[in-house]
Amino acid sequence: MAGTTALSTLGFPAIVPAAAPLVVNSYGGAFEKFMRSEIIPSFEASTGIKTKLDINLGKGWLTTLRAAGPENPPYDVLMTNETWASVERGEGFFEAIPEDKVPNMADLYPVARYKDNIAVIGMLSPLGLLYRTDQVPEPKSWADLWSVPEYRGKTGLYTVTNSAGYMTILMTARNWFGSEYEVDKAIDKIKELKPFLQADFGGTMEKYLIRGEVAIAPADFAAKGRMMSKGIGEKVEVIAPKEGMFCWEQVFNVLKGSKKKEEGYQWINYILTPEVQKKFVIGLSQAPVNKKTQVPADFKGIHGERMNEIVMWDWAKANAIRDHVITRWNKEMR
């Protein structure tokens, strides 16, 4: 400060430290490109808030948070899957979002809201069943995986370490045994589907589908578009099973130790606007969480009243038994 004052008295312009940016986060690849081109510029232009985008994955953000501690987080708002957010919330990193600071929360579908506003879902990608129309008949329900002969040996499932794999277990437990936490019974039930191919992430599953090694598998509604870009999209469809869908959600959380909470509230409110939600629909095939979003007429994904068909999980409870589920799955599905 003394050096700055001295320069000023000598006739040099005072050096004013640049305001620290609002630190938010994103996944890499196409997701990052979309955020940098379609979301960040318009947010900065409309609010005047300079924004820094941190690129990583759920586990990486958790590791970074733990290294920094709750009082000195490297992020101001964290977007992540609830599988990770529930852990971080339990470790004291987040605080509730004041609804008067984020008025667009009032227009959200119930599936996007949390009790006591401890977080809010800003992006939502439901998963149904994707199938090769040239190889197998159309499914109507998750139960069809067990009953339709054409699916035998042509089913693909995600590994248990992928959240879609874990959610398949939870959905099976819920549908067949009345509670999503009847995980051992669910694993025994899924074992009846063997042989099936397992994929560690969506790109691997889509390769199996393109090659015809898999003809039916859980998938998000954007998968058809991705496969169409690879020349196979006209041979696949995605349906919403009658028992409901699970989802990949992006949960927005305010960091308790953030020094830019007011700016963070503006970021979340911006994400929840109908205009930004429409961008997510068009650019990422996400289901819009704001009821007022004008969805294009040709959008084939989930929206409107069908948002009520999405099944959500208590990830604090699910994570508590995760190690047991992984061990049991790996033993039974080898």
Q: According to CATH, what is the class of the largest domain?
A: Alpha Beta
CATH architecture label name of the largest domain: 3-Layer(aba) Sandwich
Output the radius of gyration: 22 Å
Q: Total number of β-strand segments?
A: 10
Structural class: alpha+beta
Average pLDDT over all residues: 93
Number of helices: 13
β-sheet strand percentage:
15-25%
Write down the oligomeric state: single chain
Distance between the termini: 65 Å
Can you offer a commentary on this structure?
- There is one protein chain.
- The chain has 334 residues and is α+β, with helices and mostly antiparallel strands.
- It folds into two domains: 22-124 and 248-301, Periplasmic binding protein-like II (D-Maltodextrin-Binding Protein, domain 2); 126-246 and 315-332, Periplasmic binding protein-like II (D-Maltodextrin-Binding Protein, domain 2, 3-Layer(aba) Sandwich).
- The protein has 13 helices and ten strands.
- It has helices at residues 2-9, 29-47, 58-68, 82-90, 144-147, 163-177, 183-191, 202-211, 223-228, 261-271, 274-284, 315-320, 322-332; strands at 22-26, 51-55, 77-80, 94-95, 120-132, 156-158, 197-199, 216-220, 236-239, 246-255.
- The protein is globular, with a radius of gyration of 22 Å.
- The model is unreliable at 1-9 (pLDDT under 50).
